Amino acid sequence: MAIPPHYPNEQIREIERELKDDIFSCTENLRPEDFQLIGALVQMYNFIEFNLRRSIEIFAHAGLIPFPKPALRMAELVNKAKSAIEKMGAENENIADSLARLNEIELRREFRNLLAHWAAKRVIGKDALILFSQDSKDLQRATGKGLEKDFSGYCIINLADIRGLVTHLTSYERWIAEKVSIWHAKYPPRDAT
């Protein structure tokens, strides 16, 4: 699972300095708006993935890519879509723009994974979440530290960053939906023409 790399900033460092030995005593349950924000990001990516799967089917039927194996992972979907787009002529597609948008979708997916797979609590008195995991490999990438003996690892994320990400990704979610409609019209299945 891809998760974002460690990105410490002054706000996160300040929160880490304020945390006591009993980290759980510094947390509280998520608020309804926190659940809504997390759910919005996860659902955005569900819709993006749905449209990527539709695009792969369109591209395979059009002969731009071979028919993929069933149950492609999300990262494979982006690579397959990019492979098909690279084969389109410049008269049919703004290739550089589409590849850049798919790269951005893939890059930001790491935050979706973090919020969808790690256990979240709100940091008391802060506009931040503390996310817990027992996966040493994921912890190393997200925090720069592995799992400590007999302890759940954690990372801190500013809620402002997630709000900004949801706003940022709205145009990408809309873009992929619109592109699938365009690709469907441009690349009908070979046997349908």
Sum up the structure in keywords.
single chain, alpha+beta, four-stranded antiparallel beta sheet, 4 strands, 10% strand, elongated
Order of helices and strands: HEHHHEEHEH
Structural class: alpha+beta
Number of strands: 4
Mean pLDDT: 88
Q: Report the helical percentage.
A: 55-70%
What integer value in Å does the Rg equal? Answer: 20 Å
Largest beta sheet: strand ordering: 1-2-3-4
Uncertain segments: none
Can you offer a commentary on this structure?
By secondary structure, the protein is an alpha+beta fold. It has one domain. The protein has six helices and four strands. It has a four-stranded antiparallel β-sheet with strand order 1-2-3-4, sandwiched between helices.
Please outline the helices and strands.
Layout lengths: L9 H9 L8 E2 L3 H30 L12 H14 L7 H23 L1 E5 L4 E6 L2 H8 L9 E6 H28 L7
Helix pairs in contact: 2-3, 2-4, 2-6, 3-4, 4-6
What can be said about this structure in brief?
This protein is of the alpha+beta class.
